[in-house]
Amino acid sequence: MRSLWVVLLGAPGCGKGTQSEFLVNDYGFSVISVGDILRTSRGTPVTERGRTVGELLDAGELLPDAVILNLVGSELNKLSSEKRARLLFDGFPRTVGQAEGLSGLANEFDQDVDLVLNFAVGDDIVLGRILGRYKCSNCGKVFNDFFLHPVVDGVCDSCGGRKFNRRTDDNEVALKKRLSEYHEKTGPLVDHYLSTGVLRVVDASLGLDDVRRTIHSILSEKERE
Ligand code: AMP
Question: Are residues 43 and 101 in the same domain?
Fold first, then answer.
């Protein structure tokens, strides 16, 4: 199997996280999800003014590039060379500065950014997906108030758990900020990666299975190159 570095690019609620779970199962990728890593270090101060990871996350603001690049560099160093060879980046890069940092890291590890999947979806769709989403606290299965209820009210379909939680940044105020950060700072990455010829667009307004099929056909093409 060829080595492959794939970036998942897209607005909050576009489905990157769900598809990355499929890709781990279907293709044996390893994943670096910057948001997931940050959620475990909420108390750490990361700005000169002492603002913490948790404060920035809850406000829907991006963390400084230097902090993120450090974090990704150290995650890469933790992986075996085998795991590092087939890797998904979920939620990174999110600025042009981070994209430039990522090419430096790719060089360092003798890899390329081979493919960037741009999950295209309108803000109106992500609004419903995000404001309605919640998870089983025990097994992590995702539900939604608007279109994905547990079969038995209040009981997780997968594990029978009865406790659920929502992300602290899945509220209207933080989401507005996350979307504006996305359009202003991450949007320019579309042109950045178009110019290097690795960008492919995925219509992320479709259902999970259709998105999954689209990605499979892009990846099969890539594996044959
Ligand atoms: P996510 O789980 O990808 O939706 O990310 C949740 C939050 O983590 C974002 O709203 C940011 O506050 C922070 N974050 C995640 N990835 C990055 C990144 N690449 N650069 C800066 N901040 C990030």
Answer: yes
